[in-house]
Write a structure and sequence with these properties.
The chain is of the alpha+beta class. It contains ten helices and ten strands. Strands 1, 2, 3, 4, 5, 6, 7 and 8 form an eight-stranded mixed β-sheet that branches. α6 links the parallel β5 and β6. It is globular.
């Protein structure tokens, strides 16, 4: 390959059509939900391949501002989410999870603290009886994040909250929600694909109090628990082994008992290429994604 040329095309439907026509050889993101099944059915094995990623998709809840400063409200949100609904929104590319660590990550031990139970969710909100029921939800405006944000807003409204949904351009979304001066950072959609294959990558940037920063904040839940902070710090200094993996598994459960997030899935990455590309030679890493070299 003499050169690789990138072109920005914000419309995902157009991306698919250009790859189909051979005008573009590869699209970075998976086909959008409305076309995903069609692309998979027509091109799987020749121009299309799925690979699991080490990722987590979740809704963050601002633990330092009402109404989500109340544990009962955060737990209610987790009970209220229907994983099957989100799997439909993501056209089957999301596999349900309710925890910080994704499958394939050392320390992952599957658990389910919050089976879908709307009655239980409403009971917890009634117990909490939050005085402030105004909630602003933020989401990326690109599909399927936009629809996931709409679903999340509907769930909160069903729990009795007055919700304002703000869809933000994908080009500026993470910059905006990572700026703590942005008003009304109550709750929203986000995802995390690992930077390096170690469980600390999921805890330190996203759940340690010291990671809360004015600009470039990655602890979107503003979660700052001294006990958890100490465990993250201690484990981050140790070489990873069976004992540390067990400790990370316990930490995963401990954090989710406090419900700073409402995790809902881990992504299966679909790669779609033109008929000029030999699919057998396409390298897709569960850690780094597509490798164009």
């Amino acid at each position: 390959v003499d050169r690789i040329k990138f072109r920005v095309q914000p419309n995902p439907v157009t991306q698919v059509r250009e790859v189909e026509r051979g005008e573009v050889d590869w699209m970075k993101n998976p086909p959008p939900p409305g076309l995903y099944a069609d692309v998979k059915n027509r091109f799987e094995g020749t121009q299309f391949r799925e690979m699991p990623t080490i990722s987590v998709y979740y809704f963050w809840l601002n633990t330092q501002q009402p109404p989500f400063d109340d544990l009962r409200v955060r737990q209610a949100v987790n009970y209220a989410l229907d994983p099957a609904a989100l799997e439909r929104i993501y056209a089957g590319t999301i596999k349900r999870t309710q925890q910080v660590l994704p499958p394939q990550m050392p320390g992952y031990r599957k658990f389910e603290l919050y089976p879908h139970d709307l009655a239980k969710a409403k009971e917890l909100v009634a117990q909490a009886h939050p005085a402030d029921r105004q909630v602003t939800v933020r989401t990326d405006n690109l599909p399927p994040a936009d629809e996931a944000g709409e679903y999340f807003a509907d769930v909160l409204e069903g729990l009795g909250f007055d919700v304002t949904l703000r869809k933000i351009s994908g080009a500026s979304y993470f910059t905006l929600i990572g700026n703590t001066n942005t008003p009304e950072l109550d709750a929203g959609w986000t995802n995390w694909l690992l930077d390096y294959p170690h469980p600390n990558d999921y805890f330190q940037p996203q759940l340690a109090g010291e990671s809360i920063a004015e600009i470039g904040n990655t602890n979107l839940a503003f979660f700052d628990d001294p006990k958890v902070n100490g465990k993250i710090r201690e484990l981050g200094l140790q070489q990873l082994g069976p004992e540390q993996e067990a400790a990370y598994a316990a930490l995963d459960r401990e954090v989710m008992e406090q419900a700073p997030w409402a995790p809902f899935g881990t992504l299966t990455l679909g790669t779609f290429v033109s008929d000029r590309i030999d699919l057998d030679q396409v390298v897709v890493s569960p850690i780094f994604g597509q490798d164009l070299t």
